Amino acid sequence: MLPKIFQDAIPLLKKIEQAGYQAFFVGGSVRDYLLGRPINDVDIATSAFPDEIKSIFPRTADIGIEHGTILVIEKKNEYEITTFRTESGYGDFRRPDRVKFIRSLEADLMRRDFTMNSMAMDADGVIYDPFDGRDDIKQKLIRTVGEPAERFSEDALRMLRGVRFVSQLGFELETGTRKALTAYSNLLSHIAIERKTIEFEKTLSGDYRDKALEILIESALYKQLPGLSEESEAIRKIAGLPLVKKLSTDQMWLLLTAGMDIDPSVFLKMWRLPSKVIKERNKEKDILSRRIKEGWTRELLFRSGLERAVNVEKVYNCIHSLNSSTESLQEKYKALPIKDRKELKVTGNDLMNWSEKAGGPWVKETLEGIEKAILNEEIPNDHDTIRRWLETCNPSEKN
Ligand code: ATP
Ligand code: MG
């Protein structure tokens, strides 16, 4: 029996067939099914033209109609249904200038990047595999459909996709494909950063990321990646860290900025990551530097918060090849007398009332001094005690 994700979509394939057209599952879902890997989403390819698909299904959206893709909504599920097409005129080494809708499955499969991604499966589970993708999967080989030189010149992103499949699957690049990767690596310069970022993030988080990072260097593809052109040594070092596979994508970005000793707001901006993400990596990088210098003081743990501290500690452990858990850090955090400024039994208003002084930077400094004293158990978190303590010493000066 086919996995549920296919079962759910079979009625759509049948509907298209009943209307007199062909429809198949294609691409990543068929590959992952044959590999026994989890299937993210199913893409459907069809001989029906976009307008014909729209007349078959009542609920649709034109999400990429110029490339032949219609979004179909059925039983609350969304499916991308794309008309068979050929592509031509890759004048700029990236997007085709022209797409032509066609009725032939095989011609559609031929435009796809690698043999393992160029298989189709019909509603009965019959596989169409004109380029022997199954054989390559068996041999764990990533091979372009047709001449690699030609395919990489048409769309240079395919080279980076090849590397990310190495990272995800641990396959080897077939010899010709691998040679072309090195020969044509310069062409990656024509590719939009956003497209590179998508593939690079997948590369960073794959089970075989060490292998993939090595290939990025050997092939010189790394020279075409934002902020990495001078960093072969740092990348190689990261690839060689025994614990590198334990890190999440976010942690990998932090590891990269730490390994290259670069400001995250400079480096991650080059990759056009969202500003919220950049801010977070910035905070983590600061905490990591303090953690390296002074260890986990109670104050540092308090200021970073548990989640951030654990992230930083995992990266620290990876850098130092320490196979230790973050449990003791969690214990230490649990034992903190306060976890948040809101828990303080005095407020900025209290401070201003008691001293009869106007607000200003001193309020924040004093509150920080109080926090520090409480965290280090010099005083309990108690309103009156804090007041008496303030009267006998000035924590903002004491700092
Ligand atoms: P994932 O599981 O990560 O989604 P995928 O193989 O499905 O991997 P997609 O980017 O979703 O990757 O693309 C779907 C299919 O479209 C691919 O399997 C491949 O057949 C084809 N494809 C995608 N990008 C390219 C490209 N740059 N050149 C040629 N074919 C491509
Ligand atoms: Mg996909």
UniProtKB/TrEMBL annotation:
Substrates-to-products reaction catalysed: a tRNA precursor + 2 CTP + ATP = a tRNA with a 3' CCA end + 3 diphosphate; a tRNA with a 3' CCA end + 2 CTP + ATP = a tRNA with a 3' CCACCA end + 3 diphosphate
Which residue intervals define the domain Poly A polymerase head in the entry?
23-143
Q: Which cofactor does it need?
A: Mg(2+)
Record: residues binding Mg(2+) = D41, D43
> Where do the annotations place CTP binding?
G28, R31, R112, D155, R158, R161, R164
| Principal EC category | transferase
What Pfam families does UniProt report for this protein, alphabetically? PolyA_pol (PF01743), PolyA_pol_RNAbd (PF12627), tRNA_NucTran2_2 (PF13735)
| GO-annotated molecular function | ATP binding; CCA tRNA nucleotidyltransferase activity; CCACCA tRNA nucleotidyltransferase activity; magnesium ion binding; tRNA binding
Q: Which residues bind ATP?
A: G28, R31, R112, D155, R158, R161, R164
Q: Does the keyword Secreted apply?
A: no
Q: Which GO terms describe its biological process?
A: RNA repair; tRNA 3'-terminal CCA addition
Enzyme Commission code(s) on record: 2.7.7.72
Q: What residues does the tRNA nucleotidyltransferase/poly(A) polymerase RNA and SrmB- binding domain cover?
A: 170-229
Q: Where is the CCA-adding enzyme C-terminal domain?
A: 249-389
Q: Which UniProt keywords apply?
A: ATP-binding, Magnesium, Metal-binding, Nucleotide-binding, Nucleotidyltransferase, RNA repair, RNA-binding, Transferase, tRNA processing
The record's note on quaternary structure and interaction partners says: Homodimer.
Q: Would you identify the family this protein belongs to, as annotated?
A: Belongs to the tRNA nucleotidyltransferase/poly(A) polymerase family. Bacterial CCA-adding enzyme type 3 subfamily.
Reproduce the miscellaneous comment text.
A single active site specifically recognizes both ATP and CTP and is responsible for their addition.
Question: Which purpose does this protein serve, as stated in its record?
Answer: Catalyzes the addition and repair of the essential 3'-terminal CCA sequence in tRNAs without using a nucleic acid template. Adds these three nucleotides in the order of C, C, and A to the tRNA nucleotide-73, using CTP and ATP as substrates and producing inorganic pyrophosphate. tRNA 3'-terminal CCA addition is required both for tRNA processing and repair. Also involved in tRNA surveillance by mediating tandem CCA addition to generate a CCACCA at the 3' terminus of unstable tRNAs. While stable tRNAs receive only 3'-terminal CCA, unstable tRNAs are marked with CCACCA and rapidly degraded.
Q: Which PANTHER family match?
A: CCA TRNA NUCLEOTIDYLTRANSFERASE 1, MITOCHONDRIAL
What's the protein called, per UniProt? Answer: CCA-adding enzyme
State the species of origin. [Bacillus] enclensis
